[in-house]
Design a protein that fits this description.
CATH class: Alpha Beta
Order of helices and strands: EHEHEHEHEHH
Mean pLDDT: 92
Oligomer: single chain
Number of strands: 5
CATH topology: Rossmann fold
CATH architecture: 3-Layer(aba) Sandwich
Shape: globular
Strand order of the largest sheet: 3-2-1-4-5
Helix content: 25-40%
Number of domains: 1
Distance between the termini: 49 Å
CATH superfamily: HUPs
Structural class: alpha/beta
């Protein structure tokens, strides 16, 4: 029987507890989840793609169902090249649906063999976003409630 594989893509700059929640739930549905650090030319990242990949590999080193990679192209092309037929996306009650629906529709048009699976973000974490975490961090606020400890350690290196 073929493995059910999914792709969870994002800039993950930084990877938050909301992202972690989605991955933990996705691995109960899929045999393998590839966390894909998407490199967006339009964004100025806090952490380099190498830093993000490395911290995610450390964070999920104990989880054999999770693989981590990075990619500069369209995520549905990565999915096609790697024979992945599902893309996992988290939805927050903050206006995500319209943007995510449009992206899922475009992805399906580009790669009809790839479906998007939406997971609702936990009610305890829905307010967390990478951009808000960066904002709090930039103003010397405490981001420990919002990111996994390994991510927090990586962020502290920026200040040094």
């Amino acid at each position: 029987m073929e493995k059910k594989r999914a792709l969870y893509a994002g800039t993950f700059d930084p990877f938050t507890n909301g992202h972690l929640d989605i991955v933990q739930r996705a691995i109960t549905i899929f045999d393998e989840v590839v966390i894909l650090v998407a490199v967006s030319p339009n964004k100025k990242p806090f952490l380099s793609s190498e830093q993000r990949v490395n911290v995610l590999r450390k964070l999920f080193a104990h989880e054999p169902k999770v693989k981590v990679d990075s990619w500069t192209g369209l995520i549905v092309e990565y999915a096609r090249l790697n024979k992945i037929t599902s893309v996992v996306r988290g939805l927050r009650p903050t206006g995500d649906f319209e943007i995510e629906f449009q992206m899922a529709s475009m992805n399906r048009k580009i790669n009809p063999d790839c479906d998007t699976v939406f997971l609702m973000t936990s009610e305890k974490l829905y307010y967390i976003s990478s951009s808000l975490v960066k904002e709090v961090f930039t103003h010397q606020g405490d981001v420990t409630p919002f990111v996994p400890p390994l991510v927090h350690e990586e962020l502290k290196k920026i200040k040094s």
